[in-house]
Write a structure and sequence with these properties.
about 75% helix, about 210 residues, about 0% strand, Arc Repressor Mutant, subunit A, 9 helices, 2 domains, mainly alpha
Length: about 210
């Protein structure tokens, strides 16, 4: 027989259900179109249970952003762990994008909602900016590592190269959602590989 949940475990479970319900509603109706009551009802709780875990919808949005940030960073960080070659990292990256493609509309709708929320609530921007900085840093480290495997030095500050890759991925994601003809599910990985080969070749020419 399973033991009863502790008070802390029960609270954590309740928060997770509220966050999951909020994410689903935000994707369906937008952050502004989902009320506290609707979130609580979707999660199967009362309004009181919501306020027992969050001061209001603003705090919940910030918690959702933090949870999303941490999970994505864990996924991205795992791509290079124990990889024996750049080709293996690329294959893992392709698998990551194939899995994301299965729920890409949901993923991007939530990203767009969080961006709009931050634009309308400046106090939330530092949290969203942290997510972007962490993603760009992870990409910068990945680019530097990949170029090192090619025996090439970065042609510019890795932070700037990470920004380029991040912006390119964002743009390709929008194109795939809105005008998908000619934009395959692994277009971002193909573009990343092409950039790395170009940068590596450029670095090789400069050293000869």
């Amino acid at each position: 027989m399973a033991g009863r949940l502790s008070r802390e475990e029960s609270r954590t479970q309740t928060r997770e259900r509220l966050l999951a319900a909020a994410e689903a509603l935000f994707v369906e109706r937008g952050v502004g179109g989902a009320s506290v009551e609707q979130i609580a009802e979707r999660a199967g709780f009362s309004r009181g249970a919501f306020y027992g875990n969050f001061e209001g919808k603003h705090e919940l949005v910030l918690a959702l952003l933090e949870r999303r940030t941490e999970r994505e960073l864990e996924e991205v960080s795992a791509l290079g762990e124990g990889a024996s070659s750049f080709a293996e990292v690329l294959e893992r990256l392709r698998g990551f994008h194939r899995r994301r493609a299965e729920h890409l509309e949901h993923w991007y709708a939530m990203r767009a909602e969080l961006l709009l929320y931050a634009l309308r609530h400046p106090e939330a921007r530092p949290r969203l900016a942290r997510r972007e900085y962490l993603a760009r840093r992870a990409l910068a480290e990945g680019v530097a590592e990949a170029l090192s495997r090619h025996g090439a030095a970065p042609p510019a500050d890795p932070a700037f190269l990470g920004l380029i890759v991040h912006a390119l991925e964002d743009g390709l994601t929008v194109q795939r959602l809105i005008a998908p003809d000619g934009v395959g599910g692994e277009a971002a990985v193909d573009a990343f590989e092409l950039l790395l080969k170009t940068w590596a070749a450029s670095a090789s020419k400069e050293t000869t």
